[in-house]
Write the structure tokens for this entry.
Amino acid sequence: MCGIAGQWHFRTGEAVDLGELTRVRDAQRHRGPDDAGAWINGAVGLAHRRLSILDLSAAGRQPMGVGEIQLVFNGEIYNYKELRSWLEALGHRFSTTSDTEILAPLYLELGLDFVQRLRGMFAIALWDGARQRLVLVRDRFGKKPLLYAHTRRGLVFASEMQGLLCDRMVEREIDVDALDAFLALKYVPAPASIFRKVHKLRPAHLLVVEGGETRETRYWQPAYLPKEARSEAEWVERILTGLRESVRLRMIADVPLGTFLSGGIDSSAVVALMSEVSDRPVKTFSIGFDEARYSELDAARTVARHYGTDHHEHIVRMDAVAVLPKLARHYGEPYADPSALPTYYLCEMTREHVTVALSGDAGDELFGGYGAYWQLRVRQRAGMIPAPLRRGAAGILSPLVDRNVRRWVWWRRLRNTLRESLAPVDEQHRVLMSTFRDAERVALYRPEIRQRLNGDGLAQRTFRDAFRASDAPDPIERASYMDIATYLPDDILTKVDIASMAHSLEVRCPFLDHRFAEEMLRMPFDLKLHGATTKYILRRTLERLLPREILDRPKQGFAVPLDPWFRDELADFARDLLLAPDSRFRDYLRPDAVARILQDHLDYRCNNGRLLWSLVCLELWFREIVDAPQRVVA
């Protein structure tokens, strides 16, 4: 895994300055501490930080190319040996065993279609000198990040925001629509960023800059049709065969390798399949909390004992002053998934033992694992009740629920189910995935900010567009595609990439092999969400591999004890940060509204831990990035 950067001053023709390009590159040094390289040809420059995984020799140094083709690459190509053999048959010769070396010849043979042949995770920047063309490419699911900005001089790109901001021409105007999306979702969805002039290249997209024009095109789209008619037994065999191959491919490395183990069925499945292939005990890494209800360590230990792994654990304890500002700098824009904290510690511990780790990410998106899908199914059933009756019952319940917040939990859920079942499925799913709901955000903004938002915000448009883009026949299955298109790349994969790269650790996801995923998406959805059972067919598949107690565990997720923390370890920190007279969010949010959210939580009137986490992350981002835009992460 690596960090890449580059500039092309196609508007001014100004020569790229090595010093500035190096600053952009080296702000991402943590992504590639093993080596660094740069290539400049007049107005264009490419730069690279290397984390050595394959071909550890200096021969794998980047930028790399053939003739007038030069490129930088972040990621892994798992079918590079197959592609290398095909290219050798066409007359190409290779001097390294690096997967990077096949990319320029592949482009020479196939042009922009070269990306169709790649099986892996990647962000690539390729300069075609003969055509005066710059090509940026991101992998199908968005495992590897790539940001870019148009400037007065041309275009600049980097793997991370902190690198991009080292180009002095990048404008830092805050996008209020993106800020609103962050408060709704905990992240800013692509292609937007928190800065109006900075963009994220979307998964499965190509960006081509040529002839003074920029065009972005999608090169791959997940397809749910036609559905494959197979028996349960046949699907079980297909899942095992596909996952085995995917795990085997991701165990190819010239450095020590292990895997994350949460105790859930996805990561446990990866451990099981790695154990089949490995000739030594698999190294497993787990994270937990002192608060037992949030910790999955017992389940992780069960799997570790079952497969005799070389197991390592870490207990997360809150050290806000030291850790949270550092997280704000690493993420580069507001990001408030609480599991970023344990993931950061997990990656730190893992890197002490290995350089590459596998993970179970994306099992929920592929196999219908989120509780939100079941909730949507319940609301779909509630939709059979005439709308006037649902609206009336919700209206009767509302004042009772609102006056008795803590005592009427189940009645509140019923009210919400009845009321929200009136909305389209994409809106229902967005609300289920939201931190601050629409009315809560409106109440939070200063009047002048509220006037700048038109009601149909970035979060709404993103979810609606994703819902419409899917060919899935079941509306709930379309909701799972919405997660693949939004939540997976912009929250989950962003979290893991930033946390792992902060410690120079490469993370690989067997469930995100696109060939495996394409087959699983054509599975009938009722084999995934089967009545009230999520991941039904995956559980059936893993019956032969995992202990019954693991298969029968309810999904817990990477939960973080925010509510108790904000009443104990984090209380003073949050109070000092959010109630300070010079708090930076005051330009956008009402201080009295923020103070009320905190006090209601401290007084046990509401559990506002998730809301407070988002507000703390936002304020720290203002202080660590906006107020010090060119600071490099320590």
In short: The chain is about 45% helix and 15% strand. The chain has a mean pLDDT of 92. Residues 380 and 421 are 7 Å apart (CA to CA). The longest helix spans residues 475-501.
